[in-house]
Amino acid sequence: MIEVTGLAKRFPMARQKERRAKRRDPREQQGWFQAVRDVSFECAPGEVLGLLGPNGAGKTTALRIVSTALRPDAGRAFIDGIDILAEPLQARRRIGFLSGTTGLYGRLSARENVEYFGRLHGMAPERLRRRCDALFEQLDMHEFAHKRADSLSSGMKQKCAIARTVIHEPSILILDEPTTGLDVMSAKIVLDFVASYKALRIPVILSTHHLHEVDKLCDRVCIVNHGASIFQGTVEQLRHLGGGGDLYDAFVHVIHHGA
Amino acid sequence: MWTVYAKELLELLRDRKTFVFTVLLPILAMPLIFGSLGYLSSFMFRNAQQAELTYAIFGKQHAPQLAERFAREKSLREVPLAQPEAIKAAIADERIKFALVIPPGFQDALGAHRQASIALHYNNAVALDITSKRVLAVIEQHNGALRAQALASFKLSRDQLDFALDPVRLEVRSTAGKRERIGALVGGFLPYILLMVCLMAAMYPAIDLGAGEKERGTLETLLLAPVPRGALVLAKFLVLFTVGLTSALLMVASMGLLLTLFGGALQGAMQQGVRAIGARDLAMVALMLVPTAAIFASILLALSIYAKSYKEAAGLISPLMMLIIVPIALAMLPGVELNWFWAMVPLTNVSLAMKELVKGTMDYRMFFAILLSTSVIAGVLLAWCRWWFEREQVLFRN
């Protein structure tokens, strides 16, 4: 279970930029860029929440806050009742995070990459070994487990990144545009993985630009624009807003006119 | 923290480039370069001293004895030249190295107990002026013979002649031991090389550990691991520290080994000087390297983690190299000696201390003061690096 309310985060802006791009974005003020102003959402077990929004809407920043990489200026977030601001280390143990730009250590083998993060999560050697064996079996990775990550194909790398994400048996998953830049086969590996975790009744937050992924996997949707969440509801409710059955129309409608 | 440390080291060991830079370069290349350079320069010097010099001589008939003396020199060979006007051209196209012109009346002047002179033509636009030294040596022999004659004809005793020649003679008694003089020579550039190796060895790993994590997209996941950021910084810092220090220490060790094995092959004074540098001095040089390596590691890590890519990191670090050379090179300037003023200048003091250690004239109070101040600077820099690492603007600059 994850609950996020009223997140806000601003970044200082470079001075020159400030003068040039005067007030093009309503979030700019006095040298600060209000990347996230008011984002709230929640995601229950067995649910996949689709986080949608145009580029630069503040999705990544919001997800970085939830995954404790950034500290918010305002707002609260709880993971299984743990306040992520008060106990970030505890929260991190429960989060599995994957993004489209996530990389691997090229000079380590696939298995070493996964084990490294297991150890960082403080897993005991025996538990780590069993968990690794199980994951490599499940993702069919034994063939290339001892190859250097450098020499793996993109599909193999993606499997490796997934194994790394869930090595510590997280209780929630945060996926930030996990399929961006992937070919169809690699993207499918990721989507199958999301489906399998949904079946395990683990809450998944999926930020994406691909509406067919939303259609296929998500139960509920949160749309973020200009740093604020402007729509929350089920996929059906969103479809309804568009007038017809088309998610694209509905999405564009929400961005232009609000919910 | 040790998990991160072990993993980073493992990763670096698998990288051939780093391995070559940190291990092979200091152990093999440096002694090799300096060994061959030293051998080559002494070889060239000896060659120049013994090589055959061709010369032309005019007015032989005015000073037959002197001309004969030159003719007797084995390594000098006379080349006939038509007239004195051709000297310049002949030297320019290297037919002769030098020319002597003896004026008429040379012998008469000497006969009348007056000073006589001859002209030496040669190209003195060279670093080591060996030609004039060799000509002078021949002239000096001749002078010696003439003095002996004069002694007889003036009817002066040996003591009286000495008085007439040099009423006051300066006796130079050096208080510096042989080691001190050799140390002053070697000690000047030793710290320069050691510190540069220490910095250069850690440079590539630094880029990999900081900017590399960003470029590969692994930093984000690393930050999300339940490891405090302070521990991450410390682990990465320790890796760089290990690499830099290992590299420099390996070089000290390999030079020590080289000196014990081949020290005997060095000539006279050099050998004694080298012998006198004991294990204790080398150990103290190594001790000096510890906080210095820490300073380098902190600065490199801070710059690297700020950079967005390998390229930017390399761009940030190269000016740093230039900047760090300055205080180290300062120690090589004449007149810059270790005193309490220079002992307070970071890096310069380390260089100077190493020089003093090699010379064997270290003031130990100053040694510990420098060690302490360098450690304090290293500590402050590490703390700064840690604070720097916790800044979101540094970690997520995009």
What order do the helices and strands come in, and which of them pair?
The complex is a heterodimer of chains A (259) and B (398).
Chain A lengths: L1 E11 L2 H6 L7 E2 L2 E12 L4 E5 L6 H8 L7 E6 L2 E2 L4 H7 E5 L10 H11 L4 H14 L15 H13 L5 E5 L7 H16 L4 E4 L3 H7 L2 E6 L2 E7 H7 L5 H11 L2
Parallel strand pairs in A: 4-9, 4-10, 7-8, 8-9
Antiparallel strand pairs in A: 1-3, 1-5, 2-3, 5-6, 10-11
Helix pairs in contact in A: 4-5, 4-6, 6-7, 9-10
Chain B lengths: L1 H12 L2 H35 L2 E6 L5 H9 L3 E3 L8 H6 L5 E4 L4 H6 L7 E4 L7 H25 L3 H8 L12 H32 L1 H6 L2 H5 L5 H34 L5 H9 L2 H28 L3 H21 L17 H12 L4 H26 L2 H4 L3
Parallel strand pairs in B: 1-2, 1-3
Antiparallel strand pairs in B: 3-4
Helix pairs in contact in B: 1-11, 2-8, 2-11, 8-11, 8-12, 8-13, 8-14, 8-15, 11-13, 11-16, 13-14, 13-15, 13-16, 14-15
Helices and strands of chain A, in order, run as EHEEEHEEHEHHHEHEHEEHH
Give the helix/strand class of chain B: mainly alpha
Oligomer state equals: heterodimer
* Radius of gyration of CA atoms of chain A, rounded to a whole number: 19 Å
What structural class should be given to the helix and strand makeup of chain A? alpha/beta
Q: Could you spell the SSE succession of chain B in H and E letters?
A: HHEHEHEHEHHHHHHHHHHHH
Main sheet of chain A: which strands, in order across?
Answer: 7-8-9-4-10-11
Q: Major beta sheet of chain B, specifics?
A: 4 strands, mixed
Count structural domains of chain B.
2
Largest interface: A-B, 31 and 23 residues
Helix content of chain B: 55-70%
- Low-confidence sequence ranges of chain B: none
Average pLDDT figure of chain B: 84
Report how far apart the termini of chain A are.
Answer: 25 Å
Give the biggest beta sheet of chain A: 6 strands, mixed
Percent strand of chain B equals under 5%
Residue stretches of chain A low in confidence (pLDDT < 50, at least 5 long) are none
Described by the principal axes of the CA atoms, the overall outline of chain B is: elongated
